[in-house]
Design brief:
The complex is a heterodimer. Chain A is mainly alpha-helical. In chain A, 70% of the residues lie in helices and 0% in strands. The radius of gyration of chain A is 26 Å and the shape is globular. The two termini of chain A are 29 Å apart. The longest helix of chain B has 33 residues. Chain B is an all-alpha fold. In chain B, helix 3 packs across helix 13 and helix 7 runs parallel beside helix 13.
């Protein structure tokens, strides 16, 4: 609206560029590398990925011709994708629920911990820093029916479980995820607990409220925002289940651990059908839209 | 004393339960890690006898992986990690400062930053693979570095925004009075104030790259494999390979555990500064 009169101005092209450079304010110069990086490595591939899902591109033929919505049709009508969606959802709900409850209990327990306080905390946080692929292999070894420490230990108690049999494999994936990611919940909850105002808790103590009553009426309501954020972060992360499956069960036995991320890898890389895999990725993204939108709304709220 | 938990005292039974929970958690965390460290120095005969804790300490497993593809993969992981960290810290610190001080880009830019970290990696991995094939960059470290930047740069930007926001504005006002331009003020006056945060972000960036499997697996499965891709090759899982596998896992996990102890305190502060606390 405040653009200069274009009809009279006719400066050389270089001059115009220089003026443009001068017009870009300091704050945008600072953000420019980020904007370029997001544009080249995120936005462009994202658009390209969507186009890819409308082709019949295979790693072998690399044909980029337009193919319509055929891939989406195939993904949505083929039972494999919906089966895998069910498996992934079961995994996500079980894992995040356990991590939430266990994480909250541990954060409350750690808040009162005095003896070896920092060492205990540092130790309990370690699993989330370990490469998930390494965690998968560690547990593959540890839970192996013939060679593993745990099946042999519980066999002495008379319990015989094959952790990677059709009935237990997905539960074992949940167990491994709980081992690795409960610490993330603990980290978020503990830092939130320690920033809560002290006064209401002092008042509760003076009034002689029990620990349980204090937790239910004071601590829990005040933690709700963090609990919400932690849950959504974990739901989004857990839905990417891949590493444990890739190194332990390879989707089996009988397809019982074929997570979405795993069948996309299978379809796109092992079977060369990159277009179909891209269509799966976009359907998956649509399924995740709800938690993603919720998450972005929280960001907007935090921004004020 | 001042860091005691607020509120009421626990009953003796509740206190016992609290201690039991912590003891169980510590055990659950330690046993798998120590078992692998232990296995890395055991012989195949000891390893295939699950009831036994016998050890006849051996370096054969270490020697075994030293001759295979693991050291090369570790070197490539270090190269990728350094490249990602250096570029990430540069890009993320500049943008984090801009967002913290001027709310640059507002909410749309914040969304754009979060987006690549929350979407499933398949959304970006497949087009990046097709593009890498197009530009003859498939199975190259460049493709992996580009993919890792999409998750590492947002993380650094996010954390640095929090750290820069905690630097008082007077610092720049004084710098302006002293005759510094905005770039010089940023570089010479503001950045020294956030060095601990910058260091923690760099360590975290390196760890994220070092641990990442999916992008590396899709983009560089062959002669350019990184360490996570290389150790995923142990999934054939023959009894005789248990020792070398444990040794390789130890090599992968140990450096990250050391780094994690360094950054944990800063991490909690970074989370608080970015408004994740709610």
């Amino acid at each position: 609206m405040l653009s200069p009169d274009v009809s009279t101005a006719d400066p050389p092209r270089v001059g115009r560029l220089e003026r443009l450079a001068g017009k870009l304010p300091f704050r945008w110069w600072m953000a420019l590398p980020l904007v370029l990086l997001l544009g080249i490595f995120v936005l462009y591939p994202l658009g390209f990925s969507f186009y890819l899902s409308l082709t019949n591109y295979k790693l072998t033929t690399r044909n980029l011709g337009y193919f319509g919505f055929e891939q989406y049709n195939r993904v949505l009508t083929d039972g494999d994708f919906t089966d895998s969606l069910k498996i992934t959802l079961t995994f996500v709900i079980a894992a995040v629920l356990i991590e939430l409850i266990l994480g909250l209990a541990l954060a409350l327990a750690l808040q009162r911990q005095r003896f070896a306080r920092n060492v205990t905390r540092a130790l309990l946080f370690t699993p989330m820093f370990v490469a998930p692929v390494a965690v998968g292999l560690v547990f593959r070894f540890l839970l192996n029916q013939q060679l593993g420490l745990i099946p042999n230990a519980i066999a002495k108690l008379g319990i015989h479980i094959d952790f990677f049999s059709p009935n237990f494999a997905l539960a074992s994936m949940v167990l491994i995820d709980v081992w690795q990611w409960t610490p993330f919940m603990v980290l978020l909850f503990l830092s939130a607990l320690e920033s809560l105002p002290k006064a209401p808790f002092e008042a509760a103590r003076v009034d002689g409220a029990s620990a349980w009553l204090t937790f239910r009426t004071l601590t829990l309501p005040m933690l709700m925002p963090v609990i919400g954020i932690a849950t959504v972060i974990r739901v989004l992360e857990a839905s990417k289940l891949f590493e444990y499956v890739f190194v332990i069960t390879n989707g089996g036995p009988g397809g019982s651990t074929e997570s979405l991320q795993f069948i996309m890898y299978q379809t796109g890389v092992r079977f060369f059908r990159l277009a179909e895999a891209s269509a799966m990725a976009f359907v998956f993204l649509a399924v995740l839209a709800l938690p993603i939108i919720w998450m972005l709304r929280q960001v907007r709220k935090a921004e004020g | 004393m001042n860091d005691a938990a607020p509120g009421t005292r626990l009953t003796p039974a509740a206190e016992a339960g609290r201690l039991l929970l912590i003891a169980m958690a510590v055990t659950a965390v330690l046993v798998p890690l120590l078992w692998i460290a232990f296995a890395a120095f055991r012989t195949p005969a000891d390893l295939t006898n699950p009831g036994s804790f016998a050890i006849d300490p051996t370096l054969d497993n270490m020697r075994d992986i030293a001759e295979g593809g693991i050291p090369g993969a570790a070197l490539r992981s270090i190269i990728v990690g350094f490249a990602v960290t250096i570029i990430g810290v540069f890009v993320g610190a500049l943008a984090g400062y801009s967002i913290a001080r001027f709310r640059t880009g507002g909410i749309p830019l914040r969304f754009a930053i979060l987006f690549p970290t929350i979407i499933p990696p398949t959304v970006l991995a497949f087009p990046l693979l097709a593009l890498a094939l197009q530009f003859n960059l498939s199975d190259s470290l460049i493709a992996v570095i580009a993919a890792h930047l999409t998750i590492v740069v947002p993380m650094i930007t996010w954390f640095m925004t929090g750290f820069f926001a905690s630097v008082p504005r007077e610092v720049e006002e004084q710098a302006a009075i002293d005759g510094y331009g905005p770039f010089a003020a940023f570089w010479r006056v503001v950045v020294p104030n956030v060095l601990p945060g910058l260091g923690a972000s760099a360590l975290l960036a390196f760890m994220m790259s070092w641990n990442e499997l999916f992008y590396a697996l899709v983009l560089a499965p062959g002669s350019s494999q990184t360490l996570p891709v290389a150790i995923s090759g142990f999934n054939t899982f023959q009894g005789v390979k248990l020792g070398p596998m444990s040794a390789a896992l130890l090599l992968t996990v140990a450096p990250v555990m050391v780094l994690s102890f360094v950054i944990q305190k800063r991490l909690v502060r970074g989370l608080g500064g970015s408004g994740v606390k709610g």
